[in-house]
Design goal:
The structure is a homodimer. With about 325 residues, chain A is α/β, with parallel strands linked by helices. Chain A is built from ten helices and 15 strands. In chain A, about 35% of the residues lie in helices and about 25% in strands. In chain A, the strands form three sheets. Chain A has a seven-stranded mixed sheet with strand order 1-2-10-15-14-11-12, with helices on both faces. A six-stranded mixed sheet of chain A has the order 4-3-9-7-5-6, sandwiched between helices. In chain A, strands 8-13 form a two-stranded parallel ribbon. In chain A, strand 1 and strand 2 form a beta hairpin. In chain A, helix 6 crosses helix 7. Chain A is globular and about 50 Å long.
């Protein structure tokens, strides 16, 4: 059994992150990571006639470009693992319509990037695939319309709210080649401490992040030490809460803890309130910034812990709270 | 590589379907498979105050009962693979809130049962898990509200429409024990021949079923011969189309082809029009009827090909057609 501790899976074979691709919207392109992205689009429609279609195009582009950049064709790819925030994961399925790739649809809200990398790594380690593409996306406008209020309404957003990242990130996993390696995976369970504020996703996700990080560190004890522990999109509110909750458990990661939702924007000056969020957030930040650091060995190891708020407008209206989930992937350069 | 042909994965180790559990609604309990289900609820709310909460309870019950019936605890289960039709797969995530099981959320619309069995089998074969529970569900009332029109409207349904199954089916996969074995998995790609009628899911899914069945049979050639090829929920319209499309490809499976959506209801007398559908359809029919046949060796082998229509009301309103997907799992008694 390639399992250690309670719920962490260990790769017995090489699982290489051979390449990544990131495409982002204009706001993300004005942020501090602007030089790391592969492509920055200039408006939120990108010549499409709806935000949803723009998001599909983002994801389609990410997959197509990663093929081109690696000089491989669709026939070289065994599986496409994809997901996004929209109902029926339409950004993923409609983007994949033309690809003909065997398609595994995932839903983990904003945790989907590490969910897909984790699953993909296990399928490669298990000897089922040579190449797998993992891709996720999100779009500020399509997400606001679906989850909160129509943008046209011009509603005020509280300071705990986060800005859904417009962008798509793709990762090419392979059983051969050169690049950072996925070494371990911890899938989280669903955690719900009763948050009922749809504008405070950071608080809804912090308990899940805490539990998964704690479990992973316990399981992996002595086998890995991470230079960085990176959460997906907890932003300012969720980051602080996670640090606090972990400290209550006797774990202090504050000196090596970063959050993609805080990395992607200049939080003070870009009017994003608590920070970034969305399936695309950890996807594009990992696929650009962290991947570059790993590849250049400026970063030796990291635990990518993307977090998802399983927010549903329907269930929310029925009086339910918002559960969270977090999946962690241990990566070494 | 445990892959043969273009896109079929072969299990090198034992992957045993150790047990199943099925719980269904009253209409399904009046159908021809009534004696095969583990539990039939007596009304569509089951003491809950919304259909969505009833669906969560169905899924929660299926998971809890499969644990009890197999005399195992949550600690014996390495992963829970779950999905359903509702936005943000809330039936799955809310049902799993209390379980604390590591959770992998899937979205494949009505194809989710074979998607989860396929993925779960590969994770067991790959040496990552001893026990995995796969579970999906659907509910007629929650699905109609989300996908088509409020039930209270009393809209007429055309004869091509299908009746979403109320029910949940769970499957316990294991690396040891006695039971039918999963031998092969083919994940399908997304197929779209341009169907734009949200009341004709059978037609939307038939091209995907055709493609996956054809590919699987080509890939597996000479390695397996199935007593039965079973689709998930194509119902009368989709079944006929699939037979026709396969014949055009030179493949005639009509003498050993069955569809869960036609098995679950007495189509002539239960006013379900084309037949059953939904994530729960293939889940409960496989978990009750076919599993019993396999276990008692009255059925030696089957190819379970659950099909999903990736229908999205939002994208549909933007003028798009409805793509389909189908995933196939080869099972031997």
């Amino acid at each position: 059994m390639k399992k250690i501790g309670k719920q962490t899976f260990i790769m017995a074979n090489d699982v290489i992150i051979k390449d990544t691709y990131s495409v982002v919207g204009p706001k993300e392109g004005e942020g501090p990571l602007r030089d790391y992205f592969d492509l920055i689009i200039t408006d939120s429609l990108w010549e499409e006639d709806s935000w949803e279609k723009c998001e599909q195009k983002l994801q389609k582009t990410a997959v197509e470009e990663i093929l081109v950049n690696n000089n491989i064709t669709k026939d070289d790819v065994d599986l496409l693992l994809a997901g996004d925030l929209l109902n029926q994961i339409v950004s993923s399925s409609y983007a994949a319509r033309s690809s003909n790739l065997p398609f595994i649809g995932l839903y983990g809200a904003c945790s989907t990037m590490s969910l897909s990398i984790g699953l993909g790594s296990m399928l490669i380690d298990g000897g089922f695939a040579s190449n797998i593409i993992c891709v996720t996306s999100s779009h500020f406008c399509s997400a606001e319309r679906q989850y909160r209020a129509p943008l046209e309404m011009g509603g005020q957003r509280p300071l705990s709210s986060q800005w859904t990242v417009t962008g798509s990130g793709a990762v090419l996993l392979s059983n051969s080649g050169i690049g950072p390696k996925v070494k371990s995976v911890t899938f989280g369970s669903i955690e719900d401490l009763g948050i009922t504020d749809a504008d405070n996703m950071g608080a809804a996700m912090a308990p899940a992040a805490t539990r998964t990080i704690k479990q992973h560190l316990e399981d992996i004890k002595g086998k890995a030490k991470y230079d960085l522990i990176v959460t997906g999109d907890l932003a300012t509110v969720g980051r602080d809460l996670t640090n606090k909750l972990l400290k209550e458990e006797g774990i202090d990661i504050s000196n090596k803890y970063e959050d993609c939702g805080m990395k992607i924007y200049d939080i003070k000056n870009q009017d994003v309130h608590s920070g970034g969020s969305g399936c695309g957030c950890s996807a594009v930040v990992f696929s650009s910034y962290y991947y570059k650091l790993l590849k250049e060995k400026r970063l030796k190891s990291m635990l990518l812990t993307a977090t998802g708020a399983l927010h549903s407008p329907t269930i929310f209206q029925q009086g339910e709270s918002i559960p969270g989930i977090a999946h962690a992937v241990g990566i070494e350069s």
